[in-house]
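Quick log. Single chain, no ligands specified.
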Amino acid sequence: MIKIPTIGFISAPAWLDPAPSEFSNVIVEEVRTQQAPLLLPEFDYRLESIASVQNELNLCARSLKAMGCDVVAQVGSPFAWANARSEIEARSRNKAMMTAAHAPTLMTGLAIVDGLRALGINKVAVNCTYYESDWRDGFSAFLRLCGFDITHASTLTEQGLIAPSTKMKDIGWAMTPELASKSILLAVEASPDAEAIVVTGAGTRTLDILADMEAQTKRPIIAADTILYWAIARELDLTLLPMMGSLSNLT
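-> predicted structure:
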């Protein structure tokens, strides 16, 4: 009897993530999924707060392992890089989860780094979508710490796609495919030398536009939602469908 793998997703506080239901649509094989949100309903989403939730991450990872998950995948890139002073420090957060759960664990922020390296990418344009300036700067600094050349970094506000007064909490979970597509194309236009476009923000769902955007931009799109699917597929030796674009050739 063939064992069906089970993937556990740790989602952000007060956020029912689409990843558990979406992941089964991007692979050939049958899988099961579980979701455990960080139990912090009044979370303020400051980078300092994000950097302080290791115990909660560990507990979620342990819970998902106890539910029978073969791998635990943490959704949302800042939980790896927020206020990290080195790549080693970021990876230590993942190691702490893995040690707590006694199971393989993956973090979105580190999957972005690993995906870029697997593609042999050096020059990166960072499309920060709904991020505010401190998140934009923090994420760009982290990618530089990991050795990447950041050729451009911009947000929806800087691209002129939303009003300057708009806050991350107002747009973060209300991204549309049209807004995401426009933002990606503007990032490419601003950075013609970039070898790939990194799209941040787990609320920016790129699966339905990924292949089309790669065809239009002629570059890999490494997005916070879909790169985690690639990391899971690589960990479990699963087969990604062509809708995953350039990532489908990396497993």
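The chain has eleven helices and eight strands.
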